[in-house]
Amino acid sequence: MATRLNPYISFDGQARQAMEFYHSIFGGELKMNTFGEFGMQDTPQADQIMHAQLETELGYTIMASDTPPGMDYQPGARITISLSGDEEVLRTYFTKLAEGGKVGTPLEKQMWGDEYGDLVDQYGVNWMVNLGGLG
């Protein structure tokens, strides 16, 4: 049986916008369900995302949700997403993810021989992009 690693990102009311943004960059199929669709239609968060999943055209899977009703949002619990490979498309992804965000390390050749860059996108999610070998 095959396994895969799926990053799961927590948001505080921005899951829909963030996942639509990622969908506009990576393409693929985006599915989203709200808290209201799962029996919480009387909560203020009824229209927020209980679960979103983006299956991209290149086989990446990104999952996300808004903080459930009654739980505290913990910004430090966010993750960094790493994209690696020799695909030229990763350069385009880096550029698009940087729009409205902040580049920490520009995408450029590093001491290990690959091109690498990192950034925080407009939703506060950390990204690392490594163009080169996977190992």
Quick tags:
single chain; 135 residues; alpha/beta; 2,3-Dihydroxybiphenyl 1,2-Dioxygenase, domain 1; 2 domains; 4-stranded mixed sheet; 2 helices; 8 strands
Outline the biggest β-sheet.
4 strands, mixed
* Strands, count: 8
Q: Which percent bin holds the helix content?
A: 10-25%
Shape: elongated
**Order of strands in the sheet with the most strands?**
1-4-3-2
**Low-confidence spans:** none
Q: Overall mean pLDDT score?
A: 87
Helical stretch count?
2
Tally of distinct domains: 2
What is the subunit arrangement here? single chain
Helix/strand structural class: alpha/beta
What does this molecule look like?
With 135 residues, the chain is of the alpha/beta class. The chain is 16% helix and 36% strand. It is built from two helices and eight strands; from the N terminus they run βαββββαβββ. A hairpin with a 5-residue loop joins β6 and β7. 22% of the residues are buried.
Layout of helices and strands:
Layout (H helix, E strand, L loop, with lengths): L7 E4 L3 H12 L2 E6 L14 E7 L5 E6 L13 E6 L3 H10 L3 E8 L5 E6 L5 E6 L4
Parallel strand pairs: 1-4, 5-8
Antiparallel strand pairs: 2-3, 3-4, 6-7, 7-8
